Amino acid sequence: MGSLDGRVAIVTGAGRGIGRSVSRLLAAEGAAVLVNDLGSAVDGSGCDAGPAAEVVAEITSAGGKAAANGADVSDHAAAQALIESAVEQFGRLDVLVNVAGILRDRMIFNMSEQEWDDVIRVHLKGSFNTSKFAAIHWRGLADPSGAYRIINFTSVSGLHGSPGQPNYAAAKMGIVGLTYSCANALSKYGVTVNAISPGAVTRMTDTVPAERRRAGFPDDDERSPDNIAPIVAYLASDRSGWINGRIVHAAGYEVSLYSNPEAVVRIVGTGPWQFDDLAAEVERSFGAMLGRAG
Ligand SMILES: NC(=O)c1ccc[n+]([C@@H]2O[C@H](COP(=O)([O-])OP(=O)(O)OC[C@H]3O[C@@H](n4cnc5c(N)ncnc54)[C@H](O)[C@@H]3O)[C@@H](O)[C@H]2O)c1
Q1: Residue-wise pLDDT tens digits, 5-15
Q2: Do residues 237 and 278 share a domain?
């Protein structure tokens, strides 16, 4: 018995890296997996049906159930067809894992409009597109006791603010907002929505200097994308219904829960603030919290 027996999952960006590892584990745990991948280069250019087909071959030769899909998730109509295709081929849909992504790194002062738009389009619009049509499907089932799951992918680049990735950081924090909004909107339809912040050596991290990429992970096996898959499988299972609207970081053998944003210091005036009064109070109260000198 696998922990995902009888469940059907779509994994986007599943032809390589983390998506491939996730697809293989979900299938090994008994899920039927629609392996979606456009087969683009890291910068989003080109397309190739090969990577998705190879992952399907790996899964089926190991006795699992999978089919390939080459949709570009940033295309609204193609994302709709992707969701419908899972239901047509496997009879149902339980899990959507939004992994697909690209990089166009540049400092803010050098970034072109195209580099900004493309990264926002693939990550943020792509996650919106698939989530929207999965949500329409699940709302139509009217099954509040269901165990339906959306698992998005965010990044420490956004959570901590990587200086050379303003487009990617913004897209990944947009995905956090999308996760919170969908978690609140969809729980009454039996859907939970969470996000993973992964750390793994893939082609996407090739541009990070080797010593930083491997920091704290002397063993290459530990940095494998295979180590992201177990927490995704857990969140994809019917056991995880109690966790909703949360960010989970996974890297190597560590899995950590991030806090959700909340006010940490509050100052409340008795009427409209005057500049000098507000400046003094902000510097005193927020300053103490942030370790401001003087
Ligand atoms: N590797 C890391 O350490 C790391 C860190 C933080 C976040 N992430 C995120 O994890 C996810 C997976 O990254 P990875 O490292 O496995 O990268 P990867 O480049 O190995 O895999 C991404 C896959 O997405 C596919 N893809 C790109 N655009 C697509 C589109 N429009 N439609 C469908 N498929 C598309 C690519 O063809 C590729 O196979 C991404 O969302 C990435 O931002 C990765």
Answers
A1: 999 999 999 99
A2: no
